[in-house]
Amino acid sequence: MIPGAPNAPAQERGRLRRATLLGAAVELLTEGGFAAVTHRAVAQRAGLPLAATTYYFASRDQLLAEAFAQLVEAELATTRDWIADHGLTGLPDLIAAADRTRQLGLWELYVHAGRDPVLRQIARRWTDGCVHLVAQALRLPDGDPRVRLLYTALSTLWLELIVEQRPPAETRELLAHAVENASRP
Amino acid sequence: MIPGAPNAPAQERGRLRRATLLGAAVELLTEGGFAAVTHRAVAQRAGLPLAATTYYFASRDQLLAEAFAQLVEAELATTRDWIADHGLTGLPDLIAAADRTRQLGLWELYVHAGRDPVLRQIARRWTDGCVHLVAQALRLPDGDPRVRLLYTALSTLWLELIVEQRPPAETRELLAHAVENASRP
DNA sequence: GCTAAACTGGTACGGCTGTACCACTTTTGG
DNA sequence: CCAAAAGTGGTACAGCCGTACCAGTTTAGC
Fold it and tell me: What pLDDT shows up at residue A3?
């Protein structure tokens, strides 16, 4: 039987190989953006033959989508832990400490999601997850306008820090303002 | 003499050709993102031979950068006019009315600027320009935190509208909140 | 009018891309 | 034990890419 790129390989070794490939794709994505995620590069990074990528993933788009999803989940977990330890106003330090090219890869795929319905779902999951983290930190419901507005400040300042490399001090100051705003009734 | 991709061609026809190529690049950028801006596609769109692109532009990166800059200036002008006519709270309607793929192209290049110093300068120009427009509308100085925070709301809501295609009603409501916040002392 | 510079456009090269193909080996289930 | 399914890996194909090259033509300056 010719398998149609099994999402869950039947054999143990297959599952391992698939996971290795996905991990390699995530690595390449964080290093060089989604342009760097090619079948050949992924296979080489994983130490597997080229054909392995086409065997376990139906297409490059699917590989990219799964890598994006995995990256988003990892990012949300990291952010959750950081907020628990340092609070919302400590977030600029997280961004400063985080791998810049990794963030770039994430945002690249986020924007690319505007052209791909499959990625769009993952993009929404990212936004919703971040909003939820802010809501928890403020002890307010997810839908509260103060939560949403604070999130917009976080999001834009974050992106500016990554892309334009603005001075972190300015970001910290503005974020403090935003948190103060959100804490008012 | 072998010219090094003249930025300002000496002959009238050359200037016209260069402008035509740049216009074609902008078109393709707005239609299919920066992946669509290839030498061949630009030349074909402009109705010129392939070699014309390499003659007037030193590299694809330069062509892309100039197209980005042109797009940013056009976008700033459009936004300025719209704010003058409809005010800040009318902006969601501008976004809704604007060409969605055009905005996607802009944001794609904005994020890509994180990997390219030349583009980064243009990205900063875009941000600064938008902040300035908000400052003018609020009659506050550019550096005022209220201006910067309102801009963050605009920016994120805009991006979410474009990428995630969230319902415009929600955007309008949040934007009204943000404007109210910014108008408080 | 004539030389040099500016421009034109056809063609070619080397490289990378996604993906298909297929003979082969290993594992699984009855 | 043995057929069928699952997995393996080397290779090939067709297409697009940026860019270089160059013989020819047009224009500008003296």
Answer: 58
- What CATH number should be reported for the domain whose range is A12-183? 1.10.357.10
Query: Which residue bears the tokens 């902008």?
Result: B26
Confidence of residue A127 (pLDDT cuts 50, 70, 90): very high
| A173 vs B contacts (CB less than 8 Å) | 145
Which helix (DSSP H) or strand (DSSP E) does residue B8 occupy?
Answer: none
Q: What token pair was written down for A104?
A: 């770039």
| A99 in B contact zone (CB under 8 Å) | no
pLDDT band at residue A182 using 50, 70 and 90 as cut-offs: confident
Q: Which residue ranges make up each domain of chain B?
A: 62-183
Structural fold of domain B62-183: Tetracycline Repressor; domain 2 (1.10.357)
Residue B66 CA to residue B143 CA, distance in Å, equals 28
Going by C-alpha positions, the residue among A119, A105, A111 that lies closest to residue A66 is A119
Q: What is the Cα–Cα distance from A89 to A93, expressed in whole angstroms?
A: 9
